[in-house]
Specification:
Blueprint (H helix, E strand, L loop, with lengths): L9 H9 L22 E5 L6 H17 L3 E5 L6 H8 L7 E6 L1 H8 L11 E16 L8 H10 L4 E5 L5 H13 L3 E5 L3 H9 L5 E5 H10 L3 E5 L25 E9 L4 H15 L2 H9 L3 E5 L1 H21 L10
Parallel strand pairs: 1-2, 1-3, 5-6, 5-7
Antiparallel strand pairs: 3-9, 4-7, 4-8, 4-9, 4-10
């Protein structure tokens, strides 16, 4: 068990990188040990049933089983923003039979909580990022705001009087709002809610002026005309909302935020097993039926192998640490 209260210094980062030199070309797959996998594989989802991460895990469950020729068993271990299940996965035998469904909280929680029981630099081998989705900023049609530029102007004019809702403190939606504040100089008060649906309803009910939520929650309200989208925080426009610009197009490229999902093995898992799983996941995301199911559930498919996925983790750990410190974001309790 590893107790990591702060980001490790640069030597740990270098060690994290050097441990993955052999995995830099994930798609050049060498044959794994002939027997792997010879028994069912447990996929740890560090969130409760029914949430976004559980949904996407069940989208890939059967296709991954078919690609590997073995049963995939989903085990939900929720708590502390994903830290409970992540810490549990870190302590499992690195034999390829326990795999973690890691999400963006993996890189956020070590800076957000007083303590987490995993080390994001040392305890895992990134295998494959397979899904992502942006946050969307929404307002009421009668708000007088139709663009991010309008929002910034309102935020500067009515400093401290503008409120925005999110699905909770420390979520990527919350951090998206704080990034927007940081890089535009506006003053908005954060109002957390238990999940995305009530956060969106708070705008409709005129309790707050802006919401930062997932597209899956916002799109039905946008289609119904009860909300309008100002910008999505991804690098590309969302296919079903082609008229809503990206945050880059809106003039705030520093506020790009993408929630991601990927598979990780406990550190020490043999390279050939990592490569075998990466190859299987590549086959999964190439399937059009899987892509269609992901999109219907509010996800965009991704295909980042071990080296690229590892780079994302290394890039985002200091990014979120810096924001959390500068915005003085703190979540009560421990990520355990």
């Amino acid at each position: 068990m590893t107790n990591a209260t702060n980001m490790p210094p640069h030597p740990s980062r270098r060690a994290f990188l050097s441990s993955a030199v052999a995995a830099t070309t994930a798609m050049a797959i060498a044959p794994a040990r002939a027997a792997y996998p010879e028994r069912p594989i447990t996929l740890i989802v560090p969130f409760g049933p029914g949430g976004a991460n559980d949904v996407v895990a069940r989208v890939i469950q059967q296709p991954l089983a078919e690609a590997l020729g073995q049963t995939i068993i989903i085990e939900n271990r929720g708590g502390a923003g994903g830290s409970v299940g992540t810490g549990y996965a870190a302590r499992q035998k690195p034999d390829g039979y326990t795999v973690l469904l890691a999400a963006s909280g993996f890189v956020v929680n070590p800076s957000l909580f007083d303590k987490v029981y995993y080390d994001p630099y040392k305890d895992f081998e990134p295998v494959f990022e397979f899904a992502k989705f942006p946050i969307i900023f929404v307002v009421r049609p009668d708000s007088g705001m139709k663009t991010i530029k309008d929002l910034v102007a309102r935020g500067k004019k009515d400093a401290g009087k503008l409120n925005y809702s999110s699905p909770g403190g420390g979520t990527l939606a919350h951090l998206a709002g704080e990034l927007l504040k940081l890089h535009t100089g506006i003053d908005m008060v954060h109002v957390p809610f238990p999940s995305a649906a009530p956060a969106a309803q708070a705008v409709i009910g005129k309790h707050v002026e802006v919401a930062a939520v997932s597209i899956a929650v916002a799109k039905p309200q946008i289609d119904a005309g009860t909300l309008i989208g100002l910008a999505v925080t991804g690098r590309e426009r969302w296919a079903d909302l082609p008229n809503i610009p990206t945050i880059i197009e809106a003039g705030v490229p520093q506020a790009v935020v993408e929630t991601w999902q990927g598979l990780m093995f406990p550190a020490g898992t043999p390279k050939e097993i990592v490569d075998r799983m990466a190859a299987a996941m590549l086959a999964v995301v190439k399937r059009q039926d899987v892509r269609d199911r992901m999109f219907k559930a509010g996800f965009q498919w991704s295909a980042a192998g071990p080296a690229e996925f590892r780079k994302r983790v290394l890039d985002e750990l200091p990014k979120w640490k810096d924001l959390i410190q500068r915005a003085r974001i703190k979540v009560q309790g421990k990520g355990k």
